[in-house]
User: Fold this.
Amino acid sequence: MSAKPRVLVTNLPFAHINPRPLQMLEDAGAEVVLNPLNRPLGEDEYAEMLGGFDYLLAGVEPVTGKVMDGEPNLQLIARIGIGIDNVDLLAARKRGIPVTHTPDGPSPATAELTIALMLDTARGVGQADRAIRAQGWKKMVGVRMAEATVGVIGVGRIGKRVIRHLTGGFPGVRILANDIEPDAEFGNELAIEWTDKETIYKTCDFVTLHVPRTALTLNLIGAKEFAMMKPSARLLNLARGGIVDEAALAHALRTGEITAAGIDVFGTEPYIGELAELENLTMTCHMAANTPDCRLAMESGAVAEIIRLIEGKPLGIPVAEIEYERAAGALK
Assistant:
């Protein structure tokens, strides 16, 4: 390591709402360099830029083995956010580079935007707005959440918050849920019905996804799953791009296999494609966690991990061992 710890921040943007995370690093004696290109980095330029840095504060751009080789003495990859699908965990372990993330930071805001998009699709808010702007006047016929059946796939930090919002705000709503490790106590508390994914697809008025992107969840929702859904169903994806087959989603929305969808994440971002042509789809630009409190929690949480290493302390939130096991399984 250099005498003065050097930190490369590739996440865009960083400390733009609250300067505290940047100040934390400077107070710890670190030299901080923000992504000078102000755009997502290609693999080669990422590897070249990383040279000479001790710590990496990463966003959603791919951190591959080749990128890591740009700095053989890299001490830490601190991911700003919950997902670590963009980090090659096995490559990091092979090189002895620990990886951390901030799983709690984005959860409150993401759960709330999920409810917002759910209500939008329930009542056609976005469609009515677009119609008025085009000098139309289309009164949408919607559905009430209190009379709906909502399927939640992935009942972790965010999925649980979504369920609490639904059951607390819409008495009478029915919750069907699916998770690889069902939380029986939580389910009993809120009268959740645990079931398989197929039952959710066939039964629910709303299907909302809150799973990580892994080999098991890539294209989790495609043509087969849309064919199972009711024509009145709505789909929400605020998890990760790639979990929903975008071509299949476009077909389902065009043909009326489902009524509407709300999407915050895409396979390639910024998104350009046929989904933008569809009236019955509300899209947001991967902004679920973009509130002042949650941005601060994510950024300061990731920075705190770097400061722990600078001060010779153990990491607070290293990526769980099960994530490495999943990554290893994806290669078999």
